[in-house]
Amino acid sequence: MKTFFIETWGCQMNELDTQRLSGNLKLRGYKRVDEEANADLILLNTCSVRDKAEQKVFSHLGRLRELKRERDVTIGVCGCVAQQEGKRILERAPWVDFVMGPGNVGHLDAVLEEGRRLAIDFPEDRNYDYLALDRTSPTKAWITIIEGCNKNCTFCIVPTTRGREVSRPFDDVVAEARAAVESGRVEIELLGQTVNAYRCPVTGNDFGALLGAVAEIEGVVRLRFTTSHPAEVSDSMISAMRDHANISRYLHLPVQSGSSRVLRRMKRLYTREKYLETMARIRKEIPDIHFSTDIIVGFPGETEEDFQETLSLIEEVGYGSLFAFKYSPRPGTPALRIGAAVDESIADDRLQRLFALHERIKRERLESYRGRVVPVMVEGPSKHDPAMLSGRTDDYWVVNFHGDPSTPLGSILGVRIDSAQHHTLRGEAVA
Ligand code: SAH
Ligand code: F3S
Predict the structure, then answer these.
(1) Domains of the chain listed by start with CATH number
(2) What's the 150 CA to ligand 2 centre distance in angstroms?
(3) Sign of the dihedral through C-alpha 390, 364, 312, 298
(4) Strand 140-144 with 166-167, pairing
(5) Residue 282 clears pLDDT 90, i.e. is over it
(6) Which ligand lies nearest the alpha carbon of 322?
(7) Which of 216, 323, 335, 421 lies 20 to 30 Å (CA to CA) from residue 295?
C-alpha cells in the first residue's frame, strides 16, 4: 500500500484543503503516515500570508532533496507559496515533482495521473467532493462555502494565491452540513476568506439565508463561521445570528487599524466610524456578543497618532480576543508602492503596547464570568488535566471544568465558573 504525508501551515482553509487532499488520496488506496521518512508521497501545504514563507519552504525542500537521493519518493508543493512562486519552485528545486495551487486541490487525481508538474490555474470546476473529506475531528466539521477573495486589501497576498471569489451552491452546502451531522459532527464552522460575501450562484441566496438554513438542520448544536469582512456585514446576517440560539455569539471581524487614514491606504473599504457603526448595529441585536479581531501594526506610513487610534478603538470595542501582526511586505502587493514598513523596533514596541492593553480588556471580560452558570458544549477531556472536561461557552470561550467524564461529546451542560485563567475559564458542572 502506498503511503503519504502532509505538512500543513496556515489558516483553517489550508487545514481544510489538507482534509480534502487526504480524503482524495485515501479513496485512491493510500495510507496516511505521520513521518515524512515513511511516505511515498510528501505534500507540503504552504502558507504565504506573512513572514518569509518562501524561504521556509525552500529550506524544507533542501532537506527533502536528501531523502529523494536515498529512495523513490514523490514531492508536491501545494498551497499559497505554490501559487505565488509557481514555476520558480521547479527551477530552484528541480527534485520537486509537482507544484499545485489552492485552485487545484480538487484535481489532485488528475495532477498525479497525468504527471502534471505545474497546476496553478483556477479551473471553473473546483471538483469539491465533500464525501471524500478526511475530517480529523469527531465532533466538528469545517465547510467551505466560498473560495478566493475579491477584495484587494493592499497588504494581502490572498487574492493572488486563492483567486477570485467562487461561492458553492446553497444546496450543496446544506447537503454537506447534513452529511456532517449524520456522521456525528455536532459543530459546524463555515469557512471562506470573506465568508459573509457568500451568494449562491444558482439562487442568489445570501449569507444570512445560508446561516439560517444550516442552523435549522436537526442536530447542529453549534454553528460558527470565519472570516467575515466588515463591509459585508448585512442585516440578514445579524438577524440570523440573533434568531438562532445555536449560532455562536462570537464574531471575528478583522479591523486591521483604527485609523481611517491607514484604512484607506489598506483599501479596507470602511472608515473607523463606519466600522464602529457596524459593531453598534450588531451589538444592538446581540448585546453580549464576543468580538474578536485582527490588527496589523507598522503598515507603511503608520504614525504614532494612527497607532493611538488603533488603541482607542480596541478600548472602545472591548474585543474579547485579538490577533495582532507586524506588517510583512508581500511580493507583488500594492502596499509595496506605498512605502517601507515602519521601523522594526517601533513596530515591535507598538505590538507590545497593544498586547498589554488587550490583556487588561480580556482579563476584565473573563473575570466577569466568575460566579455565573453558563451553558457549555462538551468537546472532550481537558488538555492540561485529563481528569477535567473541556468545552466552550456559546460565546466561544474555552471552559475547563469538573464534570462526569462519561458525558457524551456535544452535550450542553450548565457550568458554574469559579475562576478565570489566562485565556480560559474554570468551573464545575452543576445539575
Ligand atoms: N480574510 C482572510 C484574511 C487572511 S489573512 C481570513 O480569512 O482571515 C489573515 C490576517 O492576516 C489578516 O486579517 C491580517 O490581519 C493579517 N495579514 C494579512 N496580510 C498581512 C501582511 N502582509 N502583513 C501582516 N499581516 C497580514
Ligand atoms: Fe486579504 Fe483583504 Fe481578502 S485581508 S483575504 S484581501 S478581505
Answers:
(1) 3-119 (3.40.50.12160), 130-367 (3.80.30.20), 373-430 (2.40.50.140)
(2) 8
(3) negative
(4) unpaired
(5) yes
(6) 1
(7) 421
